Amino acid sequence: MWWGSRGQSFNIFPQKEDPEMGLSGPKSVQGSRMLEPSRRQLGSCLASGCLPGEQILAWAPGLRKGREPELPGTLICTNFRVTFQPCGWQRSQDTPLSSEYDFALVNIGRLEAVSGLSRVQLLRPGSQLKFIPEEILIHGRDFRLLRVGFEARGLEPQAFQVTMAIVQARAQSSETQPSGGITLSKAGKASSSGKPPIPLLETLEDWETERKKQGARGWRVSTVNERFDVATSLSRYFWVPNRILDSEVRRTFAHFHQGRGPRLSWHHPWGSDLLRSGGFYTASDPNKEDIRAVESMLQAGHSDVVLVDTTDEMPSLADIQLAHLKLRALCLPDSSVAEDKWLSALEGTRWLDYVRSCLRKASDISVLVTSRVRSVVLQERGDRDFNGLLSSLVQLLLAPEARTLFGIQSLVQREWVAAGHPFLTRLGETGTSEEAPVFLLFLDCVWQLLQQFPAEFEFSEFFLLALHDSVRVPDTLTFMRNTPWERGKRSGQFNSYTQVYTSGYSQPPAGNSVNLQLSVWDWDLRYSNEQMLQFHNPGYDPEHCPNSWLPRQQPSYMVPGPPSSVWLFSRGALTPLNQLCPWQDSPSLLAVPSRWLPRPAVSSESLADQEWGLPSHWGTCPLPPGLLLPGYLGPQIRLWRRCYLRGRPEVQMGCSALTITGLQDELSYLQELLRKWTPRISPEDQYKKRDTNTILSQTR
């Protein structure tokens, strides 16, 4: 068994015997004697498969409603999650967490108790239930909905008990630190080699392998941050130009915000380099040697350099958070918005506008990378939000290998997890001004690309849904920490600053107490083999495999730009700069806040629409093969209905029938309905039913 001995413990709240138990109010319920569970019901709770340290707090038989078919089962509340276990359903030992029936406490966004047709109470942390619920509705922050009804056959105390247990457990989960994840030593994978399904980029070897895969010959892996003393928000290793020494890297990174200096994000096979960097720390006073080192790192061996302010024309973090909250409120099943005004309300959330902005800017950056051999530097003050979003989208638009199932997971691990995106802060829902689901905005952008180019992507919409839901499940540390330093410290990865993982990633060294953490990429924790098969897009064209048509050689029109040309990309146009660094005698444009930058006239056309937006003496260039330029005007940007409207099953049909995956899903649903509604009759009765004389005799 995967989980060895499970430490289940039952903390059923104490009950008092009261002969006057009734349905008049909560006082009578609190003083009631809870019915003793039968052996079969107790076995049902045990079959839920508690994780190490998980305690079952309360449970009650119920009926899952709102979806076809309605399922009888048991609603269980633990100190980790709320789970519904259908009758007769056995949780697989290979899948201890269920993607369909489990709601992590941190994922519960709204909890409602219902009694009768009109009595509804919204239960917040610290609330006291005022009546015996006939039904509870658990709204997930991932747009899922769990609706469970309770029968009135002597189960009222248990219904009240499990509802209050959810309220209290949810309150306690918000006050305590998030889960530290599940370790391999606790999980006990007996038959596994221990090798992670996706390289976690926690070793020098992982980074060197990835560098060779990209063909970045002019770059090397730097170990200057191996002790996290340059930047705690960066990974222990990253790529810098070959000729830059680690001593120079340490000095130059100090002149950037949070120590996040310029480093390679992705190397294009035709020669261009995509870099990402924090904002210049203009209060520092570098010497001439540091200035030359900064310029050398930004140029990365190229004479043509383009600086891209990734926050320009993009929404703020507060804008993204507000749009997502409005979207969640609009997609609730009991939304007060009238049907004829729903689309205008959706437009009012501005969520789709922000998706459009991201796709447009990513398209323009892709053109910059492929139009000339150059260094394109993505610059953001913190280098932890839009830099990761745009860098990831650019690679999806340009690199066929990033569109594979392995490639998208490696991309997220490198550009988001290892790069220090603050998942816990952005998705924590702690009420701070720094909350913003930037990563979920990225997933929506990827879904838009999948809809527009269904044959280009190996992964399916169901994989994106699984990734979307995984950010709310604290069973691993992948999305539950802000930095690689916090993630490694919490897991005990580096008690000393020595390399922990060996090349085989199989077992820790003898005498080492390090626990290898499971990552979110261990999908078999939560998904069955049948579900994981749906991660693959059946419409993917095998001819679009990574090395089939993208030659790793520079095409004839990919030539260097003018000598020592420096450009600022802003508002869809290129503006020449005198120098890269803001500390020189004549401060560059980037030395001042972006709102003071000179703005060219805003154009509705992208760079591709403007013949790549290049100077006239460079001439026109054809679009390179393999470059995906998505549409982002009007109806080209669609609502991700299968994700955002999951709490409303009545509108799910037809939402993805334009793809092969959608057609297969529609066919399965129709076949299920056909089996449900077709009466089971014998062949003789079927013949009589079709006989014309029989039909006529029945109508007389």
UniProtKB/TrEMBL annotation:
Compositional bias per record (Polar residues), positions renumbered to this chain: 1-12
GO CC, alphabetical: cytoplasm; membrane
GO annotation, biological process: phosphatidylinositol dephosphorylation
InterPro entries: MTMR12-like_C, Myotubularin, Myotubularin-like_Pase_dom, Prot-tyrosine_phosphatase-like
Region (Disordered), start-end ranges: 1-31, 176-199
Segments of skewed composition (Low complexity): 185-195
Domain Myotubularin phosphatase: 201-644
Cited Pfam families: 3-PAP, Myotub-related
Signal peptide region: none
Family: Belongs to the protein-tyrosine phosphatase family. Non-receptor class myotubularin subfamily.
PANTHER family assigned to the protein according to its UniProt record, in alphabetical order: MYOTUBULARIN-RELATED, MYOTUBULARIN-RELATED PROTEIN 11
Identification of the protein by name: Myotubularin related protein 11
Organism: Nannospalax galili
Gene designation per UniProt: Mtmr11
